[in-house]
Amino acid sequence: MREADLLVRLTGEHRRTEALFDLMADFPPGDPRRRDLLDDILLVLARHAEAEEGFLYPAVRAYLDDGDRLADAKLAEHAVLKRRLADLAVRTDGDQAFDDLTGQLRTFLAAHTADEENELFPRLAAACPPDRLDEIGRKARAAEADADRDRG
């Protein structure tokens, strides 16, 4: 896969999120750096969800025979994820719910990313022309840059 490829980009974001969780685990409960790292994770996940919903899942629908079913299942997972993110966004580090919810989020994301990387991404890579994945990846990057400008 090539760097512009949407699947390469999304896989890189998976690794970045895992690395942020690993860093977070290095600090004791109540350390303000944990909250800062969680805020970074929440931002990465928000952008990542936008890319998947706006670009990956439409490609899944277009190129895979069972794409509608797969995309709908992933969108349902995103709905669960967004509820968890909203709950975590209002928590403070040091309360037990913060640690519990962070652990649940990490477990949920590990399953989500493993399914994507081991099943969905290879199937899409086999069905979608590489140039098209590059084009979709470029569009996703441009959309993210536009959203960043709008966020200020």
Automatic annotation (TrEMBL):
Superkingdom of origin organism: Bacteria
UniProt xrefs under Gene3D superfamilies: nmb1532 protein domain like
Domain Hemerythrin-like, residue spans: 9-124
InterPro entries the record matches: Hemerythrin-like
Name of the protein this chain belongs to: Hemerythrin domain-containing protein
